[in-house]
C-alpha cells in the first residue's frame, strides 16, 4: 500500500510533486489558515526586527561566524545582555505609526541564543542574562493591545547547539565537539516551537530561516512532522520559510530576501514564484542586526517605492530594523518608519487590501487593484502623458483622479489602451515618490 504523503520524508515528497505546485498539491488547508493567508495578503507591510546578543557588538547578526567567536566567549557575552531601555509599548507604537500590520521578530537567530523563556535550554534571555525578562512576551501582549499580529523568526541553523551535527556550510569555527545527535537537535527545535506556539497567545506564524545551511536532501529536517506540529498547535498560524526555494508542502507564504519576487540580484533567491501569498524582506541599511558603522540607509522615497513595487507584484514588504543593545531603535530607522507611515496615511488605500493590478510591472511603475478601483503607481515617468495597455476586453475606465488631491485626470481610451494626461507638477512642489492615479472601472459586456 502507498504510504500517506505526510509519512514520507519531505525531500521525497518534494521530488515527486512538480516544483512550484508542491505547496498547493499536498495541501488540504483548513479554513482558518486560508483566512489567515487572505489577511496576510491584505496586510502588505510588516516590520522585521533582528535583535539579540549580537546587537551588543554592533557588527550585525553574523558576528559570531564572521569574527570566529567560539561558543565560550560568546556565552560570556550573552551573560551581559541587559537592554534596560527596552519598552514594548514604544516599539509597537512606532510600528503602528509606520503603518505596518505585523511584526516579525527574531526569537532565536543562528547564534543559538533564545530571546524568550524556554525550558529547552538555559541559554535564554530569562535564565542567562541580568535582564531576566521575556521581551517576546512583553511584545506579544503589546501587539495584542495595539492590534498588530506577531510572527516569530526562528533559526533552524545553530552555531551554538552541540547537536547541530553534521555541520552545514557555516558554524565550523565555534569550538564545538565534532559529534552530535541530529534527531535530538530536531526534538529540541520542536520543543521550542511548542513553547512559542503555546505561551504567547495566538501568533501570526513562524518565520523559518537557516535551512539553506544544509538543504535537503543533504539533511532531513523532518519538515512534515514540524509543520504538522505547528498547524496542530495553532491552525491559523502561517509557516513562512526563508529557504530560498519554491514552496514545499505545508508552507503558507513564499518569502524572498532583498529581492522582489522573481528577481535574484541577491544571488540566492529562486526565480520560481508559486501560488502562495508573497513577501519580500529588506534591510533598511545594509544590515539586519544592529551595525554601528553601517550608515547606508535607504532614503524614504526608496523605501516607499520598494513597498509599492512589492504591492504591484502581490507581495508584502517586511522592512527590517536592528534595535540597539539597550533596546532602543536607531533614530535613522525611527525617522524613516515614521515618514513611510505618513505617506501611507495618504496613500494607504492604494496599498492595503489590494492585489496586483491588471497591468504587469512596467519600467514606469506598477498597478494595484481593489474591486473596481485600479491604482496606477507612476514611479519613474517624468512626462505628463502616460499610455497604458488595454485593461481587458470590455473594461472601460469611467473615472480617473489623482489619489492625493482628487484632481481629475484626463483619459482617452481605445481598444489598444488607455492614455492618461496627469496634472502638471506644481512649480517648486516637492517631487512625489509615487504619483498615484485612481481609475474607476466599469466592466461592460460586448
Ligand atoms: O542569515 C540570515 C540573515 O542573518 C538574516 O536573518 C536574513 C533575513 O532574511 N536571513 C538569513 C540569510 O538568508
Largest sheet: 8 strands, parallel
- The sequence of SSEs as H and E is HHHEHHHEHHEHEHEEEHEHEEEEEEEE
Derived from helix and strand composition plus strand pairing, the structural class reads alpha/beta
Strand content: 15-25%
What distance separates the N and C termini? Answer: 54 Å
Number of DSSP strands?
A: 16
Ions, cofactors and other ligands present here are:
ligand FHN
Strand order of the largest sheet: 5-4-3-2-1-8-7-6
- The value of Rg in angstroms is 23 Å
Count the DSSP helices: 12
Shape: elongated
Mean pLDDT: 93
Map the helices and strands.
Layout: H1 10-16, H2 22-25, H3 31-43, E1 45-49, H4 63-66, H5 71-78, H6 88-98, E2 102-108, H7 125-128, H8 135-146, E3 149-155, H9 182-198, E4 205-209, H10 223-233, E5 238-242, E6 254-257, E7 278-282, H11 300-311, E8 315-321, H12 331-347, E9 355-356, E10 365-370, E11 373-378, E12 385-389, E13 395-402, E14 410-414, E15 417-421, E16 435-443
Parallel strand pairs: 1-2, 1-8, 2-3, 3-4, 4-5, 6-7, 7-8
Antiparallel strand pairs: 9-10, 10-11, 11-16, 12-15, 13-16, 14-15
Helix pairs in contact: 6-8, 6-12, 9-10, 11-12
The structure holds ligand FHN.
Fold and architecture overview:
The protein has helices at 10-16, 22-25, 31-43, 63-66, 71-78, 88-98, 125-128, 135-146, 182-198, 223-233, 300-311, 331-347, and strands spanning 45-49, 102-108, 149-155, 205-209, 238-242, 254-257, 278-282, 315-321, 355-356, 365-370, 373-378, 385-389, 395-402, 410-414, 417-421, 435-443. The protein is an alpha/beta fold. The chain has an eight-stranded parallel sheet, sandwiched between helices. The protein has a five-stranded antiparallel sheet with strand order 9-10-11-16-13, with helices on one face. The chain has a three-stranded antiparallel sheet with strand order 12-15-14, with no helix packed on it. Strand 7, helix 11 (300-311) and strand 8 form a beta-alpha-beta unit. Helix 6 crosses helix 12, helix 9 runs parallel beside helix 10 and helix 11 crosses helix 12. The longest helix has 17 residues, at 182-198. The radius of gyration is 23 Å and the shape is elongated. Bound molecules: ligand FHN. Ligand FHN is lined by residues 61-62, 209, 242, 257, 281, 288. The site of ligand FHN has 7 residues, from loops.
Amino acid at each position: 500500500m502507498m504510504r500517506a504523503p505526510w509519512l514520507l520524508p519531505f525531500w521525497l515528497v518534494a521530488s515527486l510533486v512538480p516544483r512550484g505546485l508542491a505547496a498547493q498539491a499536498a495541501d488540504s488547508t483548513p479554513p482558518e489558515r486560508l483566512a489567515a493567508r487572505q489577511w496576510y495578503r491584505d496586510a502588505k507591510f510588516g516590520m522585521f526586527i533582528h535583535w539579540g546578543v549580537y546587537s551588543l557588538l554592533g557588527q550585525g547578526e553574523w558576528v559570531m561566524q564572521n569574527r570566529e567567536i567560539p561558543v565560550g566567549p560568546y556565552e560570556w557575552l550573552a551573560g551581559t545582555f541587559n537592554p534596560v531601555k527596552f519598552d514594548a509599548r514604544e516599539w509597537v507604537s512606532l510600528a503602528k505609526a509606520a503603518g505596518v500590520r505585523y511584526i516579525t521578530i527574531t526569537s532565536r537567530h543562528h547564534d543559538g541564543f533564545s530571546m524568550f523563556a524556554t525550558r529547552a535550554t538555559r541559554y535564554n534571555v530569562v535564565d542567562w542574562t541580568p535582564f531576566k525578562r521575556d521581551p517576546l512576551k512583553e511584545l506579544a501582549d503589546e501587539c495584542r493591545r495595539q492590534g498588530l499580529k506577531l510572527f516569530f523568526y526562528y533559526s533552524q541553523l545553530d552555531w551554538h547547539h552541540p547537536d547541530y551535527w553534521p555541520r552545514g556550510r557555516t558554524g565550523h569555527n565555534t569550538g564545538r565537539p565534532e559529534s552530535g545527535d541530529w534527531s535530538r537537535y530536531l526534538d529540541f527545535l520542536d520543543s521550542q516551537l511548542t513553547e512559542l506556539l503555546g505561551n504567547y497567545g495566538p501568533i501570526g506564524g513562524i518565520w523559518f530561516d537557516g535551512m539553506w545551511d544544509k538543504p535537503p536532501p543533504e539533511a532531513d529536517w523532518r519538515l512534515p512532522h514540524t509543520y504538522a506540529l505547528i498547524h496542530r498547535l495553532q491552525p491559523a498560524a502561517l509557516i513562512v520559510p526563508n529557504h530560498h526555494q519554491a514552496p514545499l508542502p505545508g508552507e503558507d507564504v513564499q518569502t524572498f530576501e532583498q529581492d522582489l519576487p522573481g528577481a535574484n540580484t541577491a544571488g540566492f533567491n529562486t526565480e520560481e514564484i508559486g501560488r502562495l501569498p508573497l513577501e519580500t524582506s529588506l534591510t533598511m541599511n545594509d544590515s539586519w542586526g544592529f551595525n554601528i558603522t553601517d550608515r547606508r540607509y535607504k532614503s524614504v522615497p526608496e523605501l516607499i517605492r520598494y513597498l509599492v513595487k512589492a504591492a504591484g507584484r502581490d507581495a508584502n514588504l517586511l522592512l527590517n530594523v536592528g534595535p540597539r543593545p539597550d533596546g532602543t531603535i536607531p533614530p535613522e530607522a525611527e525617522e524613516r518608519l515614521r515618514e513611510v507611515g505618513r505617506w501611507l496615511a495618504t496613500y494607504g488605500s492604494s496599498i492595503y487590501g489590494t492585489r496586483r493590478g491588471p497591468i504587469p510591472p512596467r519600467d514606469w511603475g506598477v498597478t494595484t487593484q481593489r474591486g473596481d478601483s485600479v491604482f496606477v503607481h507612476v514611479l519613474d515617468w517624468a512626462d505628463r502623458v502616460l499610455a497604458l495597455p488595454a485593461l481587458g476586453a470590455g473594461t472601460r475606465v469611467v473615472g480617473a483622479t489623482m489619489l492625493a488631491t482628487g484632481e481629475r485626470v484626463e483619459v482617452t481610451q481605445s481598444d489598444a489602451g488607455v492614455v492618461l494626461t496627469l496634472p502638471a507638477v506644481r512649480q517648486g512642489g516637492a517631487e512625489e515618490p509615487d504619483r498615484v492615479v485612481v481609475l474607476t472601472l466599469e466592466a461592460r459586456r460586448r
